[in-house]
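Internal ticket - ligand job 349, zinc ion:
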Amino acid sequence: VTIRALTFHGKGDVRVESRPDPTPPDQDGAVLRVERAAICGSDLHLYHGDLPVPETGFAVGHEFVGEVVEVGSAVRDFRAGDRVLCAGVIGCGACAPCRGGHVVRCERRQTRVFGMSGALPGGQAEAVAVPGADHALRRIPEGVSVEQAVLLTDILPTAFYGAKGAEIRPGQTVAVIGLGPVGLLAVECAQLFGPARVLAIDRIPERLARAKALGAVPVHADRAAETVQGLTGGVGPDSVIEAVGADATIQLALQLVRVAGVVSVIGVNMNFAFPFPMPLALMKDLTFRIGICPVPELWDELVPLVQAGRLHPENVFTHRLALSEGSEAYRIFDEKRDGVLKVLLDPSR
Ligand code: NAD
Ligand code: ZN
Ligand code: ZN
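stdout (structure tokens):
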């Protein structure tokens, strides 16, 4: 038997192809029939050819939810029929940090993202194999919709992690650079910590308008430095959350932040030669945070916030397409066509 999966074939080339029906990777693993999968800005780094890949032809995607169809003999907490969400990033699942959800601090250095190589094929597919199921999966909680569950697999935890890393205190001013789905969710998450103002920077008018509707102050990227200076009396924001990953926007974050402020980078940047402005950082006495979000660690805090209606992440979905339209879905998302913000794929179609 085979399944259909969106597979990566090099820069700008993602196609639906048949792949063998997955089986549990080992006794701790499980197989999910995927119910919904989303495309992420991180998938675009792959799509643009910015990430090193050992091969091509693997299934892509790390944001998916589904139904458990098969479990290995050592899986304790899940069985066939459970509806679950799966962390987009996983560790070995066995060391102490992994068991606590800190999958990025895996002591066996097995931190991996689904759909970035053939070693861990992704979930933009009809079915996907999940290693370490007891640690990677969580039952879709009561009162959490399927679309909210998809966002709990990566970008809502990432946005929350960025906001926590910014150490926002009540009354402060925060700037968020980049208002893609991650940045817009970072605006929402930042507001949980009581800032007086969130300054939201991008150049796409609809995205600036969305940030404004969330209660942020929209700032056009072309005039970001002057505008933010003006709005903060020349001092700069107390913290900056960077949600783009470009050299220029990380530089901007370092430039904007006030003395003794915090820069929290959640955008992915793979530039080994990034020109870090050391004198600027030195003279500002600043804190610079960057990392991949340890997704499972944040579920206990985020699930109640979603259940209580304090966060409405599902509003980021603008496009709901069939898996069979996957190539076109990537093009729309990449070209930011048609008012797209976030694309959800239905693998049953
Ligand atoms: P996206 O491409 O939809 O959004 C990026 C936004 O940045 C766009 O709105 C774009 O207009 C804006 N932008 C680009 N250049 C800009 C500039 N010079 N000034 C201001 N705005 C600018 O992507 P997304 O899905 O929102 O993801 C954003 C980033 O978050 C990506 O780098 C992605 O890889 C990263 N990410 C990180 C993690 C993590 O664990 N750290 C997890 C998920 C996503
Ligand atoms: Zn993602
Ligand atoms: Zn581990």
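Auto-summary: Residues 295-307 form the longest helix (13 residues). The longest strand covers residues 30-38.
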